[in-house]
Write a structure and sequence with these properties.
The longest helix is centred in the N-terminal third of the chain and has 21 residues, at 118-138. This protein has helices spanning 37-49, 66-77, 88-107, 118-138, 155-161, 179-182, 188-195, 206-219, 252-259, 262-275, 293-306, 328-348, 365-374, 389-397, 414-417, 429-441, 444-460, 463-475, and strands at 9-15, 18-23, 28-33, 52-56, 80-84, 144-148, 167-171, 200-203, 224-228, 231-236, 239-245, 279-286, 314-321, 356-359, 377-380, 404-408, 422-424. It contains 18 helices and 17 strands. It has 496 residues and is an alpha/beta fold. Helix 5 links the parallel strand 6 (144-148) and strand 7. GDP-alpha-D-glucose is lined by residues 35-38, 40-41, 173-174, 248, 284, 286, 319, 321, 362-363, 365, 368, 385-390, 393. GDP-alpha-D-glucose binds at residues 35-38, 40-41, 173-174, 248, 284, 286, 319, 321, 362-363, 365, 368, 385-390, 393.
C-alpha cells in the first residue's frame, strides 16, 4: 500500500451523478445533474477531493460525441466521469429486473413483490462484468475503489478475475434481510460469494450487518467469523473480509445554510402566507412501495376521524417523486395513492380547507428546503428503509427548532434518531395517527428539546464523518489523505 498522497478515490455506482438528456428541439444531448440519496451523499466528497466516478449514462440511445460530452463535464465537475453504456435489454433485465424486481423487494422484506427470473440474474452478472471491465481499464494499483449498492454486488469478483488487484470496498445503501428471507433467493450462494470478494463490506445499521453475518454463518460452511474492534472479520477462501456498519449522513451544514438562503426564504414566505395559521405535516418520498405512503395516508385519515378538533387546523403535504416508471407495481401504487388522496379530500374537505396537498413531481431544491422549514411535523414512515435521508435533511433544515420528526422504527435512521423522534410502527395506523396528534399538541419546549438533539446528531454524524469512518475501516485513511486535484485527466483522455 502506498502513502495517501497518491491514492485516488474511484467510485462505482449504477448511475453517474449526471444523466444524459436529449434536447429534441435542438437535437442536442446535454448532461443534467441527477438526483437521489447516493448522489446527494457523495457529490461533495468527490468535488472536494477529485477522483473518478464510473456509472451508467442513464440512456440506452446511441449518443454521438459521448466521450467529449463527458470529458468536458469532468472538467467542470472537478473529477472524471467514466460512462458505461447499456442496451435497452440490459437495462430491462439487470436494472428493472434483477436489481429492482428481485433484490430491492427481497432486501426490504417484501418477498411477495419479488420476481425470481433466471434471465434477470444472467443479465445482472453480465452487466456487473461490464462495470468491472470499465474499472480495470481505469484504475491504478494504488487507487481505492468504492462500489455502491445492490445493483453492483458482483463487480469485485469479476474485477479480480481480470487481474484488477486494488483495494475494493462495497457499501449497501439498502437493508440486508434476515436469513429466513434471504434464503428464498435462488442465487443466494452466488450473491454471498460475490460480496465476499470485496475487502470491506459496509452496511447502514448493526441490524443489517447482523443479518448478513447470520446468512454467511448459515450458508458458507467454511467461512470463519471473528470480531475485531467494531468490525467483524470473515475468513473466506484464504482472504480476510471486513464487515461493519456505517450509517450514512448528510452535508448538514450545507442544508442548514441553504435553508436559510434567500431562495428558500422567499418560498417559505409564500407558504407561510397561505398556511401560516395551520400546522403542516410533510411527507417526501420517491414513488416506492417500501416508503409506506398508503399506510401514511390511512394514518392521516384516521387522525381526522378520531381527532375532529384538528380538522381545518392541519394539512398534509405529500410530495411523491416519480420513480421506476413502467414497473407495474409502481404504476399500481400511484393509482392507489391517488385514490386515497381523493377519498380523504372528498370526505373531509371544508370550504377554505383541503386536508391533503399532493404533489406528484420533484420539487426544486429551494422548494424542498422551504417545505422542510415550513413543516411543523415530518412524517417519515417507510415500511423498511436502509437509512432515509429525508429524515436527516428535515432536521438539518429545522432552523427554528420547533418541529417534530415522526419516524418509522424500520428506517435505518431510527438507530441514530430514535431517541428524540416519535417512533412508530408504520403498519400501525392508529399509533401513527396518535403520534401526529401528540406532535400537533406538543409544547414548544419539548419540540425544541427533541429537535436540538436530532440536529446535534445530524451535524456530527454527517456525510464527512461517514466517509471518514468508512475509509478508516477500508484503508486506514481519512478524507484529508486524498489529494485535492485542480484538474485530473486520465492518460487515455489526454488527446481529446
Ligand atoms: C437509498 C436508500 C438511503 C426527494 N424528493 C425530492 C428530492 N429528494 C431527495 C431527498 C433525498 C433523496 O432524494 C432521497 O433519499 P432517501 O434516503 O430518502 O431514499 P432513496 O433514494 O431510496 O435512497 C435509503 C439512501 O440510499 C442513502 O444511503 O438513505 O434508505 O433507499 O436526498 O432530498 N430532491 C429534490 N426534490 C424533490 O422533490 N430536489
Amino acid at each position: 500500500m502506498t502513502d495517501g498522497s497518491t491514492k485516488r478515490l474511484i467510485v462505482v455506482s449504477n448511475r453517474l451523478p449526471y444523466v444524459l438528456e436529449n434536447n429534441h428541439d435542438k437535437n442536442r444531448w446535454t448532461l443534467k445533474p441527477g438526483s437521489g440519496g447516493l448522489v446527494t451523499a457523495l457529490l461533495p466528497v468527490l468535488r472536494n477531493r477529485g477522483g473518478v466516478w464510473i456509472g451508467w449514462t442513464g440512456t440506452t440511445e446511441e449518443v454521438p460525441g459521448i466521450t467529449e460530452i463527458f470529458h468536458s463535464a469532468s472538467r467542470e465537475a472537478g473529477y472524471v466521469l467514466e460512462p458505461v453504456s447499456l442496451s435497452q435489454e440490459e437495462v430491462d433485465l439487470y436494472y428493472h429486473g434483477y436489481s429492482n424486481e428481485t433484490i430491492w423487494p427481497l432486501f426490504h422484506d417484501l418477498q411477495s413483490q419479488c420476481e425470481f427470473e433466471p434471465d434477470y440474474w444472467h443479465a445482472y452478472v453480465k452487466v456487473n462484468r461490464r462495470f468491472a471491465e470499465a474499472l480495470a481499464a481505469d484504475c491504478h494499483p494504488d487507487d481505492f475503489v468504492w462500489v455502491h449498492d445492490y445493483q453492483l454486488m458482483d463487480v469485485a469478483q469479476h474485477a479480480r478475475e481480470i487481474s484488477c488487484l486494488v483495494d475494493m470496498a462495497f457499501f449497501l445503501h439498502i437493508p440486508f434481510p434476515p436469513p429466513d428471507i434471504f434464503l428464498k433467493l435462488p442465487e443466494r450462494l452466488a450473491v454471498l460469494n460475490s460480496l465476499l470478494a470485496y475487502d470491506l463490506i459496509g452496511f447502514q445499521t448493526r441490524r443489517d450487518r447482523r443479518n448478513f453475518i447470520q446468512c454467511v454463518r448459515m450458508l458458507m460452511k467454511h467461512a470463519r467469523v471473528s470480531a475485531q474492534g467494531h468490525l467483524h472479520v470473515i475468513r473466506h477462501e484464504e482472504r480476510d473480509v471486513h464487515v461493519g456498519n456505517f450509517p450514512i449522513g448528510i452535508d448538514a451544514a450545507a442544508f442548514t445554510t441553504a435553508a436559510a438562503g434567500p431562495e428558500a426564504e422567499e418560498r417559505l414566505r409564500e407558504i407561510n402566507s397561505r398556511y401560516g395559521n395551520r400546522q403542516i405535516v410533510l411527507g417526501v418520498d420517491r414513488l416506492d412501495y417500501t416508503k409506506g405512503i398508503p399506510q401514511r395516508l390511512r394514518a392521516f385519515a384516521n387522525l381526522l376521524e378520531r381527532y375532529p378538533e384538528v380538522r381545518g387546523r392541519i394539512n398534509l403535504f405529500q410530495v411523491v417523486v416519480p420513480s421506476r416508471e413502467g414497473i407495474p407495481r409502481y404504476d399500481e401504487l400511484k393509482v392507489e395513492i391517488e385514490r386515497l388522496v381523493g377519498h380523504i379530500n372528498g370526505l373531509y374537505s371544508q370550504l377554505g380547507w383541503v386536508p391533503v396537498h399532493y404533489f406528484f413531481h420533484p420539487l426544486s431544491q429551494a422548494e424542498l428546503l422551504a417545505f422542510y422549514r415550513a413543516a411543523d411535523i415530518a412524517l417519515v414512515t417507510p415500511l423498511k428503509d436502509g437509512m432515509n435521508l429525508v429524515a436527516k435533511e428535515f432536521c438539518a433544515c429545522s432552523i427554528e427548532e420547533e418541529s417534530v420528526l415522526i419516524l418509522s422504527q424500520f428506517a435505518g435512521a431510527a438507530a441514530q434518531l430514535g431517541q428524540a423522534a416519535l417512533v412508530v410502527n408504520p403498519y400501525d395506523v392508529e399509533q401513527t395517527a396518535d403520534a401526529i396528534y401528540n406532535a400537533f399538541q406538543m409544547t414548544a419546549g419539548e419540540r425544541r428539546y427533541r429537535m436540538k438533539r436530532l440536529r446535534r446528531n445530524v451535524r456530527t454524524q454527517n456525510i464527512f464523518w461517514w466517509v471518514d469512518s468508512f475509509m478508516r475501516a477500508a484503508i486506514d485513511k481519512e478524507l484529508r489523505d486524498f489529494p485535492v486535484m485542480e484538474e485530473y485527466i486520465p492518460e487515455h483522455h489526454e488527446n481529446l
